Amino acid sequence: MNLQMVDLRGQYLAMKDEMDAALQEVLASTQFINGPEVGKFECELAGYLGGSYVLGVANGTDALQVAFMALGIGPGDEVITPAFTFIATAEAAALLGAVPVFCDIDPKTFNLDPNRLEALITPKTKAIVPVHLFGQPADMDPILEIARRHGLYVVEDNAQAVGATYKGRHTGFIGHVGTLSFFPSKNLGCYGDGGAILTNDEALYHRMRLIANHGSQRKYHNEVVGVNSRLDALQAAVLRVKLRRLDAYTEARRAAADRYDALFDGIPGLAVPYRDPNGRHVFHQYTLRVAPEVPGGRDGLAAHLKARGIPHAIYYPVPLHRLPVFAGGAAPARYDDLPETDRAAAEVLSLPMHTELTAEQQAYIADAVHAYVRNPKEKSPG
Ligand SMILES: Cc1ncc(COP(=O)(O)O)c(C=O)c1O
């Protein structure tokens, strides 16, 4: 059986004619940087997400960096983020000389735990950066309330959750600013690197636009120190074709998640992803938790799947506070014990999740999981 974590080829073939025509049009126009394609995509995405401003940038890491720069985050400032995320969330802050302060997670959602947030705030804190991990919206209301009380910015790292909603609102437009990644495997992915910044704040939007374009609005009239970070027109064309399908893609992911949930129902020691009643999960990943009581645990199950040619991934095996860059002091970071973060890193296992995944493929994957969890001793790896 042809199983993959993501099936970009299958997805491309299903829209080949439309995609090829869109790319051909940009090639013929030779307007590769800025130009109408990028502007159209930014408008269409803002409309889709129900927000005011979208700024295309070169990738999701730059999106965070440009947002932090525009908010004036710099040396010595503290930025509170979860440690159970991709490095980029904290890296963008560290690059600017800011200090990531790691907050533990809610074990149900894998997202920043608002109950642990306030104790981490100091006079140096500038921003809170919740991550909507795996496509699951973070619990935004208490985060916004704490931020409001302390005069802090909220930057949503929405790289994994385009299309998700929290209490009816699209994530990424709930805080002061939100960021997106269009890395090819993301729910809305392009054919290279790409990213975007989202905000309803007009002044902030203009400042971010300035920073992302060498600090200049007019050519040879640079006003501030900026960066070169633009979404290019070919990627914008890809994204416009895919944006028309994003609802269908999200529904396909959610339907696949429902099928997995049913297949794994009642297996002792195995927890399927939590469905927060306040949010619409868009399943960038379908991530199981394997309890340590399951003999062999998560790593035993991973080895069993590997031996059977079933793709899987551990997002994230090493939480940020244990990475050499922060734990070894190459970049400063502040954190206390993060027991839920460590527990999640030891127990999570993500299965294939994409828009082309079939019920038959999922039944095959689930059979292998069942065989291991019910009878781990007989299923030695290899
Ligand atoms: C949570 C999170 N933040 C930031 C990024 C960075 O995005 P990019 O790879 O486009 O720079 C990613 C993805 O790669 C991500 O998953």
List keywords for this structure.
382 residues; alpha/beta; Aspartate Aminotransferase, domain 2; Aspartate Aminotransferase, domain 1; 7-stranded mixed beta sheet; 3-stranded antiparallel beta sheet; globular; binds pyridoxal-5'-phosphate
Share of helix among residues? 25-40%
| Rounded mean pLDDT score | 96
Bound molecules: pyridoxal-5'-phosphate
The CATH class of the largest domain is identified as: Alpha Beta
Number of helices: 13
- Which residue ranges are poorly predicted, with pLDDT under 50 across at least 5 consecutive positions? none
- Specify the structural class: alpha/beta
Q: Any idea of the CATH topology of the largest domain?
A: Aspartate Aminotransferase, domain 2
Q: What order do the helices and strands come in, and which of them pair?
A:
Elements: H1 8-13, H2 16-29, H3 35-49, E1 53-57, H4 60-70, E2 78-82, H5 88-95, E3 99-103, E4 125-128, H6 140-150, E5 153-157, E6 165-166, E7 169-170, E8 177-181, E9 195-199, H7 202-212, H8 233-243, H9 246-263, E10 270-271, E11 279-280, E12 286-290, H10 297-307, H11 324-327, H12 339-347, E13 348-351, H13 359-374
Parallel strand pairs: 2-3, 2-4, 4-5, 5-8
Antiparallel strand pairs: 1-9, 6-7, 6-11, 8-9, 10-12, 12-13
Bound molecules: pyridoxal-5'-phosphate.
Pyridoxal-5'-phosphate (PLP) binds at residues 59-61, 85-86, 88-89, 131, 157, 159-160, 181, 183, 193, 195.
